[in-house]
């Protein structure tokens, strides 16, 4: 088996839709621990698919597993092995820093195995940095489904009630298939279960408290861990903040489209201002509209697999992902290349065997119902009027993928975090395409005195590795528990062309 790595928030949607990207791989160093302080660490082993560079980065990483219940509400119904990894503090040890992966679908083990570019040297010196593959992901009993069935996933751009009904039927068929190939864990993937997994990791490590840094979807893990176990939190960093209080499908999609549109607008402005843009002097919005029209006709190649045609939604998703960095120069070059590319003539092959479907946890964490096609079409019409270039944001697939499935075990709620010894530190870009700045502000309001928002005035999904200012303030907080003054802002750094 072969784990495909480094999908980030919402990136897993694209990966699972293109089911031919790879199959999950074998676990590394499968040792177990179920009692406090009993983790049996071993050097992480090479795995199929590791590049030469990744193999060079492997030394120093340690891997293990922790035995946890399939269902924390009914522990007697069986267990599975949760994969974890760490790198030990290099100098004066402060404690353990747990990194909460994004996604859903990111591998925390991979983050540790193949280097520490996510963390500053100061954090590497002072903390044992630990992460894990969340339940249902990568090495932790991954959700597996028939690859051919995943490849048939309907487009989220539905055009009739018949399309709506087919999507519901498909989702139920896929869920049954995944349950068959994954086992009992398939029905216990929600964040409340993962919160208990993190507490099991803490206990197995023998630590009284942990520091936690969550990114994107991992911020939801951080806030819900703090709700359940505030006395176990030494420090809590929430980067690119996920607002799990968003109550309705309409508000969820409206907010997601708005933040994607804002990031696209910033790209267009950069192209107008910068001669480094391959589309400088061009009408970028008109070019984008024409590419969308051609994609609707099957005439635009997939930027990643140019021998095959892309769809209008997947073309938009590719643009959305290039706004994450943001990688504006590459986005401009991609759009210019697609403008002159001939229509593809090949059809993608039908995959065989099993493939991972790591988006499954989302449907157990969010209730985003739609009654019928009429409600859906009305919602898209309103979203499109306000967000003409991003009328079909990537998160649209999050809504349609969950249609017809059981209600979430961990539905949206307003945070109730009490008794943190140190306020949580939130950090968000003003122009984040995936977790908008208003989400961070809203979570900060919910935390009240328990939360402090650090604003990065620039662009992209994530700010710690983008801004030295953000990095320094986050490090000061994690190492010394120095909380920056409320209202602190870090200046924007223009993306490198």
TrEMBL record:
InterPro entries associated with the record: AB_hydrolase_fold, Pept_S33_TAP-like_C, Serine_prot/Carboxylest_S33
Sample GO molecular function, one term: hydrolase activity
Domain Peptidase S33 tripeptidyl aminopeptidase-like C-terminal: 400-490
Keywords assigned by UniProt, alphabetized: Hydrolase, Signal
Pfam name, any one: Abhydrolase_4
Keyword presence, NAD: no
Keyword hit for Hydrolase: yes
Signal peptide: 1-28
Organism superkingdom: Bacteria
Assigned protein family: Belongs to the peptidase S33 family.
Protein name stated in the entry: TAP domain protein
Species name: Kribbella flavida (strain DSM 17836 / JCM 10339 / NBRC 14399)
């Amino acid at each position: 088996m072969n784990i495909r790595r480094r999908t980030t928030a919402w990136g897993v949607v694209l990966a699972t839709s293109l089911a031919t990207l790879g199959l999950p791989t074998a676990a590394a160093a499968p040792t177990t621990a179920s009692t406090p302080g009993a983790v049996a660490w071993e050097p992480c082993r090479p795995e199929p698919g590791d590049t030469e560079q990744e193999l060079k980065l492997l030394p120093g990483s340690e891997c293990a597993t922790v035995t946890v219940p399939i269902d924390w509400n009914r522990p007697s119904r069986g267990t599975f092995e949760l994969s974890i990894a760490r790198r030990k503090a290099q100098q004066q040890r402060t404690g353990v820093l747990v990194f909460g992966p994004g996604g859903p679908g990111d591998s925390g083990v991979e983050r540790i195995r193949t280097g520490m570019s996510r963390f500053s040297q100061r954090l590497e010196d002072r903390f044992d940095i630990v992460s894990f593959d969340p339940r249902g992901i990568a090495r932790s009993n991954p959700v597996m489904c028939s690859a051919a069935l995943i490849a048939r996933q309907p487009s989220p751009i539905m055009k009739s009630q018949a399309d709506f009904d087919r999507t519901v039927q498909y989702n139920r068929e896929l869920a049954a298939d995944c349950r068959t190939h994954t086992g009992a864990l398939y029905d216990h993937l929600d964040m409340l279960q993962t919160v208990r997994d993190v507490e099991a990791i803490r206990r197995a490590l023998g630590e009284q408290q942990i520091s936690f840094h969550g990114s994107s979807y991992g911020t939801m893990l951080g806030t819900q861990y703090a709700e359940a176990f505030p006395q176990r939190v030494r420090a809590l960093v929430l980067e690119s903040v996920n607002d799990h209080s968003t109550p309705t499908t309409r508000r969820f999609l409206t907010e997601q489209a708005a933040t994607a549109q804002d990031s696209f607008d910033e790209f267009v402005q950069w192209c107008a201002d910068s001669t480094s843009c391959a589309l400088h002097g061009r009408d970028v919005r008109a070019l984008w509209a024409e590419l969308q029209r051609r994609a609707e006709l099957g005439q635009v190649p997939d930027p990643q697999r140019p021998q095959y045609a892309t769809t209008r939604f997947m073309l938009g998703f590719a643009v959305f992902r290039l706004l994450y960095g943001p990688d504006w120069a590459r986005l401009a070059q991609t759009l210019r290349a697609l403008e002159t590319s001939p229509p593809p003539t090949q059809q993608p092959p039908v995959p065989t065997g099993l493939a991972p479907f790591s988006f499954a946890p989302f449907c157990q964490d969010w209730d985003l119902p739609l009654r019928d096609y009429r409600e859906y079409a009305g919602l898209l019409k309103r979203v499109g009027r306000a967000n003409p270039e991003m009328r079909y944001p990537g998160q649209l697939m999050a809504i349609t993928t969950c249609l017809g499935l059981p209600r979430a075990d961990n539905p949206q709620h307003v945070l109730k975090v009490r008794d943190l010894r140190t306020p949580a530190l939130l950090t968000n870009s003003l122009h984040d395409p995936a977790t908008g700045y208003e989400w961070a502000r809203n979570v900060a309001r919910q935390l009240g005195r328990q939360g402090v928002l650090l604003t990065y005035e620039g662009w992209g999904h994530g700010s710690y590795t983008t801004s030295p200012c953000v990095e320094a303030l986050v490090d000061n907080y994690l190492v010394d528990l120095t909380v920056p003054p409320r209202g602190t802002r870090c200046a924007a750094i223009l993306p490198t062309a």
